[in-house]
Structures
1.
Amino acid sequence: MAEAVRFDNRVAIITGAGGGLGKDYALEMARRGAKVLVNDLGGSGGGVGASTLPAEEVVRQIRDEGGEAVANFDSVSTRAGGAAIVQAALDAFGKVDICIANAGILRNNRFEDIADDELDAVLDVHLKGAFYVAQPAYREMRKNGYGRFIFTGSASAMYGHAWQANYAAAKGGLMGLSHIVAIEGSAYGIKSNLLMPTAISRLGDEMTEGFREIPEFAKSLDNADWSASGGRQTVNFNTPLVLYLASEQCDLTHAIFSANSGRYAQVHICAADGWVTPAGTTPATPEDVAAHIAQIADLSIYHKPQTVYEEFSAVADAARRQGVI
């Protein structure tokens, strides 16, 4: 039987922890020994308003169960707010071991109609907000030679969802951020992974079905097989994977994971072996590309570079396989 996942003597910062996914992470992590900084501005799913009540209620529940937690109400969307969140954890508990960037809002619209307030607000909370909290947290983790980051991505960025160009752009940015934190953090005992959660939450209240105007996208929704998902899209189905990724037991880093309806899976970004142009310094023509497009897209052989430089090695492998070098 696997060793129990515990967080004794570990300090976790969880943003957006006043409800939904973040609340469940905070409660379960505290039950397993973590000291938790519960951050939540207390606004709506669309990023409007503020209240101290959501974070205070989660802290009260943790303390009633015998755990340790403090509430924080700073906005993640400014550098000063991010610094204040990390400082609050340091003031309360003296260190930071785990940072879960979970805060998020949703403002859906057609790509062609997204206005600055819909773009900026979503980027500020999801992408800049994660950056602003993670950066000072990373500095503390580096001092201590240990850290765990979980950035909250989305299938909307990885696979696509109509009427969510702003949200998907922010979540795609978080994928890149997690990769770099993982690479740089590897020298200091810091691991970073991206989670794509699936849950029915208050952000769903911000959704409309205007996206059904896109016929092929509407068809993908209508034809989806939900037979394995009944009662399994609740927030607590995401928590086991999050807690493992945040634990000392987790040796994985620089990875992407999906939690969907009780299925946990690693998601890979890969490149096809492709077509390598003949030896020499003459580039291909567009007509050459057209003639070889099937080979370019063929995934029967593929590579998974972990840095930009590993792709050069993948190119060399493909060139050897195809007799170019």
2.
Amino acid sequence: MSQIFQAGSAFDVLVIGSGIAGLSSAVAAAEAGASVAVLERSSPEEFGGNTRWTESYLRMKNEHEVSDDFEELLVSNAGNNIDPNVIEATSAAYENWPDYVKAHGMPDPELVSTLSSCAGPTLQWLKTFGIRFDALPTYFVTAAAPRIMPVGGGLAMIETLQAHARKRGVSLFFHTTVTSLSRRDSEGWLNVGVATGDKAGESLMLRARSVVIASGGFEGNPEMMTQYIGGTARYIRPVARGGYYNKGEGIRLALALGAAPAGDFSSFHAEPLDPRSAAPEALVMNFPYGILVNKNGRRFTDEAPGPVDVNYDHISRAIKDEPDGIAWVVFDQRIHDVPNWKKSIRTDQPSIQADDIASLAQACGISVEGLQRTMDEYNAACSDGEFAPLRPDGLATRGISPVKSNWARRIDQGSYMAYPIIAGICFTYGGIKTNNCAQVVDADGRIVPGLYAAGEATGLYYQVYTGATSVLRGAVFGKIAGQHAAAQLC
């Protein structure tokens, strides 16, 4: 049950959000002896943010080691056209970086190195609460990176952590939203205004020695989505209910205090979502073996540049720029040559089926003429060659644009099938700048005393998501934030 607020209550550490980042912070701080409260806008039945609804893939070879490409990919996705002077400055010790470099929005090497080196120890810490990890089957038919995950997914992790938080005396407040946040006053307190369901329309003030912002991104806020993503945000929806609770207040309140922004505010992590389904993560991942067309029946992207786990993000995101922000994957009976292809379909809705292309187009509500012309052009561009469904096979189209780089076979063996796909949003990329202790850094490169951030509220990613790193980021820096905040009390 949710506890009841008392105005003026004071805590050593106040955590905003109860996903993997927030609960890791709360438990770590409580273990260190701090008095801790967690503020969560959702109900007790739906706590947990995005973590609750995901398998929580972790980009690790085993419980101790991250993937071999872990740091390389995070650094290579650090943004566009970075000033060489900034890059050179980061080769020095952090304390010697110029202030503007400390405040730069890129994921600096210190942050990436900390995430990589602390991943294994953080999993060992989580295991002490009874959370188990294993290399369980994923929904990817082809994959370029190893993944392990918690047994029971994200839900098992947050339920376990919440139970341990309660045992440690952490106060949990649900139906509660933070409305204001101050810097530390002369007595060392941060003042936090909250609105709670227990006191409708009433603003209450709390005090804390430290605050951890772990309230996620802004994918549940259409105003911020339109501001940062643009007009096509109208076509995007969260992949699961947890995203609707992420309204971006934590980010806005930190920026209002002078926090430096970080990450790519113009982009987001996308997944290919069946818009007909109400199920969480109703994904359609089989498009590398078919073609993607828009409502005009035209192809618009390379469906198969490589393994799907590397490429689904930017391919899904491209769909938002098509008419009405929707596409369809079209395939035929040859799909059955792909072993276990149905595991790539997570939607609970059936495929749209027809005996011929014209009927399929009509059933989908797309241009009959456009789809027939596209299919004729595509089939003519396919050539003979070895089809190898479980690895990139180089079986590419010839003479059409965009090219299909792998698994390009004629689609002419009816009956035909299609699924509609939109760009579902997992989380936004833009957020708060932090250092490797999860302390919030202001626009002048200085630490904001007592203010921490972890998880999706922080900026890390640019361009393309480095798969299976988000939950890991939340756990690692959530733990660091809680421990560091508690240590400052000594």
3.
Amino acid sequence: MNTIFTVPDMTCGHCEKTVRGALAEALPGAAVAIDLTAKTVTVEGDAGRAEEAIREAGYSPERVVA
């Protein structure tokens, strides 16, 4: 299952790399797609772990409810 987060404080390539690394550590092998312009992160797997990983990396994810 995929979950989409908006991450309003993800503003640059360094932010993207940090978020991607945090998700890779929390959810090894999970598919991650980041759209820096839209400030969205789409991640496969455990949404709670993904949200926690993004928060621990210093960002403020908000789940997008479809």
